[in-house]
Design brief:
Elements lengths: L2 H26 L2 E5 L8 E6 L2 E8 L11 H18 L7 E9 L10 H8 L13 E7 L9 E8 L3
Parallel strand pairs: 4-5
Antiparallel strand pairs: 1-2, 2-3, 3-6, 4-6
Length: about 160
């Protein structure tokens, strides 16, 4: 057997064992669900797993009003909703480690997502002198959000500091 071919099974075994060790603690962690306030909607506002909090997607508080605002306005409002949810769990925006952003096409922008508007709202909260922590993040345009006038939905993962 060639030396290289002997290494492949060992490498695969090492990778598999490492993955088991990496994910085993999470598999045994207790999940604690945070219900949505004043709602019987069948999702949790968030779920604690160990020291990690997974918050459901949040939208602007104005999405159902006749004047829901543009992408920047909705981003600011959505992040303020996230901030309130984090504070209720004794966390801050500085504890956010991952953010997923869903942007619907803005009719005022020809159906394209307004990434510039999103960034104008986002940068009021992250990477500032008052709150310098920046999460890992992905942002994408989606065909639509559940609320017809919604342009922004944001979900985050935060970690309780030690």
């Amino acid at each position: 057997m060639e030396p290289e071919s002997r290494l492949k099974p060992n490498l695969l075994f090492s990778l598999a064992a490492g993955a088991i060790l990496l994910f085993a603690p999470a598999a045994h962690a207790q999940a604690t669900r945070i219900p949505l306030s004043n709602s019987n909607f069948p999702i949790s506002q968030g779920v604690w797993v160990g020291d990690s909090l997974y918050l459901s997607g949040m939208m602007a508080s104005t999405f159902s009003s006749p004047t829901p605002g543009d992408t920047k306005d909705q981003t600011v409002s959505a992040i303020q909703q996230i901030q309130k949810a984090l504070e209720a769990q004794k966390l801050t925006l500085g504890d956010v480690v991952m953010m997923h952003v869903y942007l619907a096409g803005d009719p005022a922008k020809g159906g394209k997502m307004d990434f510039v508007g999103f960034m104008a709202g986002y940068t009021q909260f992250f990477g500032t002198p008052a709150q310098p922590n920046k999460p890992a993040r992905s942002a994408m345009q989606v065909a639509a959000l559940a609320a017809p006038t919604g342009l922004v939905e944001i979900e985050v993962i935060a970690v309780r500091p030690k």
